Amino acid sequence: MTATATLTDRYVDATIRSLPAAAQADVRAELEASIADAVQARVDQGEPREVAERAVLSELGDPGILAAGYADRPLHLIGPRYFLVWWRLLKLLLWIVPACAAVGIAIAKVLEFATIGETIGAIVVVILQVIVNLGFWTTLVFAVLERTVPVPVTAWSVDQLPEVVENRAGLSEMIGSIIFLVLGAAAILWDSLRGFLRPDGEALPLLNPELWPWWITALFVVMAAELILAVAVYRAGRWSVPLATVNTVLALAFGVPALYLLVSGQLVNPEFLHFLATEHAEDLAKANAGAAAQGGIFRVVTVVFAVVTAGIVVWDIIDGWWKTFRARTR
Fold first, then answer.
1. Structural domain of 318
2. Beta carbons of 183 and 114 less than 8 angstroms apart
3. Which of 313, 328, 212, 325 lies closest to 267 in space, CA to CA?
4. CA angle, corner 165, sides to 160 and 171, nearest 5?
């Protein structure tokens, strides 16, 4: 480019320099003709040529953006073709994968007889790593798709609209609650009557038999109330402040006694602990030695399960109020 090059020459050169060599000559000719016509039109209206040329080039904008248009090269990481699919998939993965990874790490650390601090630290680190990797690799895949896969032939149509009845608030929650509560009640009864452990052919309950009848009856009452709440949400078609309040009360009614029994040592059957101490004395001794700094393996397990229980209760409360807020904003 010489010192006498005009603004048009400089603009055209800046535009075509990033294009494939085979297309540069055609784009140069087309762009020069287009600029010349636009400048001449302004000159015919009385503008000085220098002013007209500067105005036309300013309207064309950044030559890099113009070149991307000629090359059909996107200047965004993820465009509108794939953005919604990317966003929905990423949200789904962020809901599921970090939680599964956290549970897996917690179980692994307990089996390794790690301390409470080591367990919590490992969970936090893994969750952060999973979130970062999910965001990076999911975005990378869609960025590659944006630049390599042609525009889909099939377009969106009204036939893809979901049925309104399928979006009725509380339907999936009611079904899920019924299944969960029935399985939970069945597990409690099975543990008491048949036993998940049967050394010498006799049932060895995991839960303390002294919890019967009052504590277990109270638990069944709370579970029945949870089922009634799920039905009420379904019948109402949406969450509301009274329903969220009831959900909060029920969550606390489950969580507070459960944490009290767990921390006070009344939740687990003493005979089950005695069975571990006698039948697995060597393994238990190693576990206690590995977790001695935190008071022994039973204390570590108690704290981990207490944190998990508290997290479930807090999440249940937040989830109810969040759904109420969303229902009110709609």
1. 167-329
2. no
3. 212
4. 120
| Type of residue numbered 27 | V
pLDDT by position in tens, the chain (length 330): 444 567 888 888 887 877 777 777 877 888 888 888 888 888 888 888 888 888 888 888 777 777 766 666 655 567 677 777 788 788 888 888 888 788 777 766 665 556 667 778 888 888 899 899 888 888 888 778 776 765 554 555 556 555 544 445 556 667 777 888 888 888 888 888 877 677 777 777 878 888 888 998 999 999 999 989 988 888 887 888 999 999 999 999 998 998 888 878 788 777 766 666 665 555 555 555 554 444 444 555 566 677 778 888 888 899 889 888 887 776
Same domain, 305 and 174: yes
Domain presence at residue 91: yes
CA distance 40 to 35: 8
Please name the residue that has the structure tokens 């020069």.
32
Helix boundaries (H) for 62-210: 63-71, 83-111, 116-148, 171-193
Are residue 22 and residue 93 in the same domain, yes or no? no
Q: Is the peptide bond before 213 cis (omega within 30 degrees of 0)?
A: yes
Number of compact structural domains in the chain: 3
List the structure tokens of 199: 């050394």
Tell me which amino acid residue 84 is: L
Residue type for position 301? V
In Å, what is the CA distance from 315 to each residue of 63, 218, 293? 51, 22, 30
76 found inside a domain: no
Tokens of 301: 């397990």
Q: Specify the length of the chain in residues.
A: 330
Residues 6+ apart with CB under 8 A from 10: 1
Residue located via tokens 């839960």: 207
